[in-house]
Amino acid sequence: MTAELFIAFVIFALALLLTPGPANLALLVHGSHHGFVRTLPFLTGVSAGKLILHIGVGLGIATVLETVPLIFDGLRVVSVAYILWLGWQWIIQPPRTDGTADATPLGWMHGVPIHLLNPKAWVMSLTAYAEFVPPLATLPEAILWVAGTYLVLQVFSNGLWALGGARLLRRLGPRHLHNAQIILSLVMIVVTLYVVVIV
Q: Is residue 93 exposed (0-12), middle (13-18) or buried (19+ Cβ within 10 Å)?
């Protein structure tokens, strides 16, 4: 692995991981509802789901999806339904009157499907394997390289989004926070629909 290839991969990955997408917006909204610490189980689930995806793509699951496109289409439908459900849950949640975090944060298992069901995440993984793995790398080296690098960068970028949501929780009053959460939930839904339509 050359330094140039590593730097190019990190720039590519960070450019995609730091931009708003379904997972980042879900972490922002969740952090705004529950604070940073109570968002950590959800965040680790999101990161674990992405790790599972990268390992699966490295092992050839993408080939199955290419040969049976109906499976990929099914992932898209389930993805949209899941993100719409999450967004709706956050929209209908009543506003807090005391400015404290909501009582029931999502757990690890709620975070895992976010990337597994996100077509953009699949494209990111496929691109990483196609463009940034050294030509002579063995399969275990390629998986370690892509999945390991993404995992570190994923936790970092997801943590920033969750922390941003937690800052909203502390800085905005209950009425303004609730309005911001509704807007962010709607943005998450629109971004998800957009990603699914363009991929």
A: middle
Rg (CA), the chain: 17
**Distance (Å) of CA 120 to CA 8, 29, 45, 183, 192:** 19, 20, 18, 22, 9
The torsion defined by the Cα of 13, 160, 105 and 183, in degrees rounded to 10, comes to: -90
C-alpha to C-alpha distance for 103 and 93, rounded to whole angstroms: 11
b/e per residue 134-161 (b: at least 16 CB within 10 A)? eeeeeeeebbebbbebbeebbbebbbbb
**What gap in Å lies between CA 38 and CA 29, rounded to an integer?**
12
pLDDT 10s digits, 119-167: 778 888 888 888 888 888 888 999 999 999 999 999 999 999 999 988 8
Give 56's contacts (C-beta < 8 A, 6+ positions apart): none
Closest CA to 105 of 44, 186, 184: 44
Residue 3 near residue 162, CB atoms below 8 Å:
no
**Assign residue 67 a region: left if phi > 0, alpha if psi is -120 to 50, beta otherwise?**
alpha
What single letter denotes the amino acid at residue 34? H
pTM for this predicted structure: 0.78
